[in-house]
Structures are given as structure tokens and as C-alpha cells.
Write a structure and sequence with these properties.
The complex is a heterodimer of chains A (about 350) and B (about 280). Chain A has about 350 residues and is α/β, with parallel strands linked by helices. Chain A has 13 helices and 14 strands. A seven-stranded mixed beta sheet of chain A has the order 3-2-4-5-7-6-12, with helices on both faces. Chain A has a five-stranded mixed beta sheet with strand order 9-11-10-13-14, with helices on both faces. Chain A has a two-stranded antiparallel sheet with strand order 1-8. The longest helix of chain B is centred in the N-terminal third of the chain and has 19 residues. Chain B has a five-stranded parallel beta sheet with strand order 1-2-3-5-4, with helices on both faces. Classes of the chains: A alpha/beta (about 350), B alpha/beta (about 280). Chain B: InterPro entries: THDP-binding (IPR029061), Transketolase_N (IPR005474). Chain B: It comes from Ancylobacter crimeensis. Chain B: Pfam families: Transketolase_N.
């Protein structure tokens, strides 16, 4: 079969093999990157050893949300609810009403889209202590829109009572899990599963619920980011340093409630371009949350957002898609350089 | 514990009559309400609260209580009437029904009312919550049961069937669900909106212990609750209660059936008068 023509690629890229859509779940770890296996599953097991109220529930995605680690450690505290997400979250609400701390897992699309009313009414409105932990957040699957949760944060942000966490890496996930156990109330956590990159340990980072943290200072550009985009922003900052562009990175893992004070202070520094980078549609995510905050506070830095376009995303290999939609490290560098000239 | 309400000599007939009367008084306060449903389900609620369930009226969150989930939140007027009769909600609050700042909103919500265990309104939620509560109670080693009332219209919701499968799969014999088959939903007769018959056979095929009774025949309803509470081989229990909308008020029973039945201003007093003529001992 004749290979498809490779257009408009530089020679380095043209030499790479053609990429294909991986399985539904693609690794987001770069080649040679340090990783940890199933950090969520192991962290949950650690918490559950000390806290008998924790139960694990899933809708036929235990293996694919790293909940199988919990299942192996506590088989009698693991509840397979079947491929029935509405039931999953309704039952999680009932479990929580009886004093338990259910961790309910599925893919982000199924929680945020299919089961929205169940989460809204039985968990958020009733203020139940349910931890919703969802794999494949944003664009972390090349499988197509059925599995790409480009709008999960927008949907969850609109729900009163919901705390929303978008962790960056394995180091952070390990700290988020005990923190959300300690926090009483509904939580939506974006999950990275499988072999998850280790990044933030190099920055002496500790997670605090509701806190944004400056990982790196820079006077020309400030990235504000969450989730995997913080990893990308840090890589971009290093790359841009080589081009003598000084870039800071403010990591905002708690999407709601937003750390307004830290963000406003960081954005008040004069002459610094603020770029919010998010693995999410540009509608209703961190970019618009920060923009709204700045407008309401009368803080007006030069401001740009990097996020997924308002369209149904393509199927394909994740690196291809991240380049195409502007959220790869290279794409971040290119966009920032364009805005600075 | 409390079976306090059962300790006296008030008959179930009188309990059901009192529930109907409380509901009509609330309807009169607001000039509207799902009164036809309240009247049809009064016998089931009387049996649940004054024969079947275990609770402490002055301690509605008592850990040893049986849980009652109102999935069809628009039946709140009926449940409030029962909660008042049970002494869980003070009778004087009846006058606040549906008003701003009341603990008795038009649609039942968990955070508003003592004894209201879930937020309804969006139909089809209750059985899923019940599954989680039953699993949780079993995990705690509790012998409390979960009673869940839902409406025949809710059988249209796919999530109800998810929960029906799940309850059987997890062998939730601490679950007693009651479906009110009054054959009326928003757009017309339930069987015409989306057919669900033969309901008993379907639910049995799903692995439930199923009884179908005249939901306005107190002795039949009482027997059904008794059977549901006795050993049923690890199966969840479903009571299909065929009911008559407007039951107990002849001119409302005869009114053209409608999901939200119209009662004119002067008719509330007529309804009370009609009920008072039929006051049981």
C-alpha cells in the first residue's frame, strides 16, 4: 500500500515513523520520561489502610482507572457496578449517605456527559462525600470524540458544591488522594493512569487543595496551567530559555475553587504576558475562569489562551493531535514566540 | 426504638385518612399540588410508616432507622403528610407548604426536610441511590431496610432498569421498592406513553421478589409489606401498587385523569368535607 504523502513537515519529523491511533488509552509519558505505575491506585490503597470508610466503585473500568490496585488489596471493598454510569453515581451517593467515602471511577466523558444529572442531583445537590475520579480527561485519547472529554471541566465547574482537581503527574496524584479524602464533600478529579510521568518532584512541589503554586519564575511570560499542560509549560519554559525568553509557570491544580489571590498577584506583575494553557476546550475551562477573575478584579495583563478548539476533535495519534490542536510543547513554544514578536 | 407510632390503637385506615387530610390541607394552602397522587398513595404510606418501618419520630437520623427514599419528588406533599402524621414534622408546618423559607418545598429535597432522605424532582434517581444505601447498610452490618417509592412513569427511565439489574445482582434483600402504578404521567396514561407491561413478569425475570396488589386495599398492602420483609431468598422486593388517583374523594376520583389535576379554589373545602364524611374510627 502506498504511504500517504507527508506534507509540510521538517526533515527531522519526516524521518519519524507514521503514527497511528493507539488503543483507546494512550500514554502521555514522553519517550524516556520517568514514570510511576498506577499512582492513584496505590495512593488509594494507602489511604484505605487507615480509613475503613473508603470503598471503590467503578462502571466496568476498574482496570482502566487503576482501581484494580485497590480491588487487589481490598476485594470486599470494591464494587463493580457494571457499565451503568448513572447507577454508579446514584449508588455512590447512597453509599456516602451511609457514612462511606466512595471513590467512583469511569472515563471523564461518561461522568461529565452521560451521568451529569445524577452527579448534579444525587451528589452535588445533596452534598455527598463522593470522589469522582475520571480517566481520559481533555484530549488524552486518540479514539475520537466519544472518549475525548474536551469539556469535562466546563460541565463540572458549573455545578455548585463541586471541587475540581486536575493533577499534573504521579507525584501530585499521590498527594491529591489523601487530600481529597480529608476534604468532606464532592470532588471531581481528572485522572492520569497507567505509567504516569514524574515531573513535579524536581520542583520541590507539594499539593495543597485550593492552592496555586509558582513552579518557576520568569519576567517575560507567565504560563498558568493545570494537569498535563503544566508538564508541557515547564518543558516549553526550558526550551524558550534557550531562545532567551524568560518564562514562569504557575500551576493551578485546583480548578474550583480557584486560588484567586495567587493568580491575581501573579498577573499583576507589569509587562508580563499571561498565557493560560489548558488540556480542555477554550470554552468554560481554566482560561475563561482566569479571564473572568482578572476582568472582575480589574487586572488587565496582556492575555492569551491555549486550549482545544470548539470543534469535535479528530481521531489519531496523541502526539499528532496535540501538535494539531496546539497543546504540544513545540506548539506552546511556537505560539508564545509568535505573540512576543 | 420506635415503633412508637404503632404502640397505640389508631387504625391504619385512620392513619391513611389523616395523611389524606394533611395533604388536602397543604393543597389548599397553595391552591395547587399533586393532590391526586397524594390521595392514591396514602394507603401505601400509612402502611409503610405505621406498620412496616422502624424509626424514631424525634430522631429522624437515628442510625437504626429504616430508610425511606422518595424517588418521585413531586409526591412530596404526600410524604410530608405522612411525616406530619408520624410526628417527624410538626403539624403547624403544614401551613408553610410551598412558601418561601419553608422546610416543605413543592418537590422533596434532602437538605430541606427532616425525614427526607434524598432529593427527587429529576425522576429515576431513587432506585440507584437505594442500591448504594443497601450496599452500605450491608457493609455496616446493619439490619435496617431501604424503602423506595417511585412512580410508574419512572419506569421509562433507563437508569431505573440499571438499578433493577444491580439490586438483583448484588442480592439486596434489604431493599423494598414500591412502584405506584396509577397509570398517569405528564403526557397521558403511562401504558400509552411507554408500555411497561407485563410488569410483574418482567421484574420477576430480572430476579426480584414481586407482588402486585391493589394499592388502595390496606389489608392487601399490609400483607405485601409483611411478605416483602420476610425471607425472600436474597432477592430485592418490589411491590407493584395499582392505585386510583384521587382515592377517597369521589369527585376527584371521577375527574378526568390528569398528571396535574386541577382543583378549583372552592373545591378544597368540598374535598375536606367529602373526606370528613368518610372518617374511619
Amino acid at each position: 500500500m502506498k504511504p500517504a504523502p507527508v506534507a509540510k513537515l521538517d526533515t527531522a519529523k519526516a524521518a519519524k515513523p507514521r503514527l497511528t491511533t493507539s488503543a483507546m488509552i494512550a500514554s502521555i509519558a514522553g519517550e524516556g520520561q520517568r514514570t510511576k505505575p498506577a499512582p492513584f491506585g496505590h495512593a488509594l490503597v494507602n489511604c484505605a489502610r487507615a480509613d475503613a470508610s473508603i470503598v471503590g466503585m467503578t462502571a466496568d473500568l476498574g482496570k482502566y482507572t487503576d482501581l484494580h490496585i485497590f480491588q487487589q488489596a481490598f476485594p470486599d471493598r470494591y464494587y463493580q457496578m457494571g457499565m451503568a454510569e448513572q447507577l454508579l453515581f446514584g449508588a455512590a451517593s447512597g453509599f456516602a449517605a451511609e457514612g462511606f467515602t466512595p471513590f467512583a471511577t469511569t472515563y471523564a466523558v461518561f461522568a461529565s456527559r452521560r451521568a451529569y444529572d445524577f452527579i448534579h442531583q444525587t451528589i452535588a445537590e445533596e452534598d455527598r462525600n463522593v470522589k469522582i475520579v475520571c480517566a481520559l480527561p481533555g484530549l488524552t485519547s486518540g479514539y475520537g470524540p466519544s472518549h475525548q472529554a474536551a469539556e469535562d471541566l466546563a460541565l463540572m465547574r458549573a455545578m455548585p458544591n463541586m471541587t475540581i482537581i486536575d493533577p499534573c503527574d504521579a507525584h501530585e496524584i499521590e498527594q491529591v488522594v489523601p487530600a481529597i479524602v480529608a476534604h468532606k464533600g464532592p470532588v471531581y478529579m481528572r485522572l492520569l493512569r497507567g505509567h504516569v510521568p514524574m515531573v513535579l518532584d524536581e520542583y520541590g512541589y507539594t499539593f495543597e487543595l485550593g492552592k496555586a503554586k509558582m513552579l518557576r519564575n520568569g519576567y517575560e511570560v507567565l504560563f498558568i496551567s493545570s494537569g498535563i499542560m503544566t508538564m508541557r509549560a515547564l518543558e516549553a519554559a526550558k526550551a524558550l530559555e534557550a531562545d532567551r525568553v524568560d518564562v514562569g509557570v504557575l500551576h493551578v491544580p485546583t480548578i474550583k475553587p480557584l486560588d484567586a489571590a495567587t493568580i491575581l498577584e501573579a498577573c499583576s506583575r507589569p509587562g508580563r504576558l499571561v498565557v493560560v494553557a489548558e488540556n480542555h476546550t477554550v470554552i468554560g475551562g481554566l482560561g475563561e475562569a482566569v479571564a473572568g477573575l482578572l476582568m472582575r478584579a480589574g487586572v488587565h495583563p496582556a492575555f492569551r489562551t491555549i486550549g482545544l478548539p470548539d470543534e469535535f476533535l479528530a481521531a489519531g495519534a496523541l502526539p499528532t493531535l496535540h501538535d494539531r490542536y496546539g497543546i504540544s510543547t513545540d506548539a506552546l513554544c511556537t505560539q508564545v514566540k509568535g505573540w512576543l514578536t | 426504638m420506635s415503633t412508637a407510632p404503632f404502640g397505640n390503637n389508631i387504625s391504619l385506615e385512620r392513619r391513611a385518612w389523616n395523611i389524606r387530610r394533611n395533604a388536602i390541607r397543604m393543597g389548599e394552602v397553595q391552591g395547587q399540588g399533586y393532590i391526586a397522587q397524594a390521595l392514591d398513595i396514602a394507603d401505601v404510606l400509612a402502611t409503610a410508616y405505621f406498620h412496616a418501618m422502624r424509626y424514631e419520630p424525634h430522631n429522624p437520623e437515628w442510625e437504626g432507622r429504616d430508610r425511606f427514599l422518595l424517588s418521585n419528588g413531586h409526591y412530596a406533599i404526600a410524604l410530608y403528610a405522612a411525616l406530619i402524621e408520624a410526628g417527624i414534622v410538626p403539624e403547624e408546618e403544614l401551613e408553610t407548604y410551598g412558601f418561601d423559607e419553608s422546610r416543605l418545598p413543592m418537590s422533596g429535597m434532602a437538605s430541606y426536610t427532616p425525614g427526607m432522605e434524598m432529593s427527587g424532582g429529576s425522576l429515576g434517581l431513587g432506585l440507584s441511590i437505594a442500591v448504594g444505601k443497601c450496599l452500605g447498610l450491608k457493609r455496616k452490618g446493619s439490619d435496617s431496610r431501604v424503602y423506595t417509592l417511585f412512580s410508574d412513569g419512572e419506569l421509562d427511565e433507563g437508569s431505573v432498569w440499571e438499578a433493577i439489574m444491580s439490586a438483583a445482582h448484588h442480592r439486596l434483600d434489604n431493599l423494598i421498592a414500591i412502584v405506584d402504578v396509577n397509570n398517569q404521567q405528564a403526557d397521558g396514561p403511562s401504558t400509552g406513553v411507554l408500555g411497561f407491561e407485563p410488569l410483574k413478569e418482567k421484574l420477576e425475570a430480572f430476579g426480584w421478589f414481586v407482588q402486585r396488589v391493589d394499592g388502595n386495599d390496606l389489608s392487601a398492602v399490609r400483607a405485601a409489606f409483611d411478605a416483602a420483609k420476610s425471607a425472600n431468598g436474597g432477592r430485592p422486593s418490589m411491590i407493584i401498587a395499582d392505585t386510583l388517583m384521587g382515592k377517597g374523594i369521589p369527585f376527584l376520583e371521577a375527574r378526568e385523569k390528569n398528571h396535574f389535576i386541577r382543583v378549583d379554589g372552592h373545591e378544597w373545602q368540598l374535598a375536606l368535607a367529602a373526606l370528613d364524611e368518610r372518617k374511619p374510627a
